[in-house]
Amino acid sequence: MIKDIATPARTKEILNKFGFSFKKSLGQNFLIDTNVLRNIVDAANISESTGVIEVGPGIGALTEQLAKRAKKVVSFEIDQRLLPVLDETLAPYDNVSIIHSDVLKADIHQTIKEQFKDTSDIMVVANLPYYVTTPILMKLLEEHLPIRGIVVMIQAEVADRIAAKPGTKEYGALSIAAQYFAEAERVLTVPATVFVPQPRVDSAVLRLTVRDEPAVSVSDESYFFQVFHASFANRRKTILNNLVHNLGPKERKTDIEEALHEAGIDPKRRGETLSPEEFAILSEALLKRFP
Ligand code: SAM
I want to staple 271 with a disulfide (CB 3.0 to 4.6 A). Which of 48, 104, 232, 286 is the partner? Predict the structure, then answer.
């Protein structure tokens, strides 16, 4: 019978055997609790017809639990020192491929084409390196990958910002960006004690279910993103001031005022009170004036 990787004793044994030392700069906090791992796999609704993309397998703790349930697992790992470790720890599983690459530089569309030829149900599942959580999530969403969703362990505070609703203090550009592409829910809170080394922050599992169509309809996605990013540049400023100072050089104050008026938005409101729908209407009203 194979012993799970994610126990304190087995993890210690593996780390000692390979003389592995953690690199803080790569966000290396490994999971040592199989219950938490099973909960992550459950939250992703993995079956034997699911293809899984994992970011950062570490020594294979989550990879192993995924391999037991999924059709196939493809994991991107940046740290070359982990390749011989994974070779050994994942040897019992013939449905795992490790790609030595920075996931931010990887062509994931191509990987899906090559590795998941006859798989229609694809999920991304990961215990993400916390130093690059947002760029990784935004890459996965913005590239319009053919995936059902994403289940990730991240900093609890970031999970709350991503899943936040308008009018709350957590709501901001990241909430709108993520919720434009996906439905977001925080599904699990996880204590620091289930990791080695223990992170200093609380962690949570976030589930993103990719929408068939974006949450709001806009004619220019990148301009819509520019508009709401500019609107949150300084949270204490009004929407008018933020847009005047942070949109482009071509957008004049009087035109911005007119666009806000047309969109039915009081120029004294702050970005965090606007719904994604209002940002979409505003973005269209601005676009008319600055095509
Ligand atoms: N999945 C393992 C677990 O749960 O125990 C390890 C998770 S650890 C939080 C993050 C992993 O991501 C590490 O193995 C780290 O080397 C890897 N990593 C960090 N930056 C990466 C990047 N840009 N691309 C791919 N992997 C990365």
Answer: 232
pLDDT tens figures, 205-228: 999 999 999 999 999 999 999 999
27 touches ligand 1 (CB under 6 Å): yes
| C-alpha to C-alpha distance for 34 and 271, rounded to whole angstroms | 41
pTM: 0.95
ipTM score of the complex?
Answer: 0.99
All residues at 6 or more sequence positions from 8 whose CB lies less than 8 Å from its CB, including other chains: 32, 196
- Kindly give the distance from the C-alpha atom of residue 163 to the centroid of ligand 1, in angstroms, as a whole number: 23
The tokens for 43 are 């939250």
Q: Is the CB of 29 under 6 A from ligand 1?
A: yes
Sign of CA dihedral 70, 76, 82, 87: positive
Please, what sign has the CA dihedral across residues 199, 204, 209, 211?
negative
Residue 29 alpha carbon, nearest atom of ligand 1: 9
Burial of 24 (0-12, 13-18, 19+ CB in 10 A): exposed
Residue 195 in contact with ligand 1 by CB distance below 6 A: no
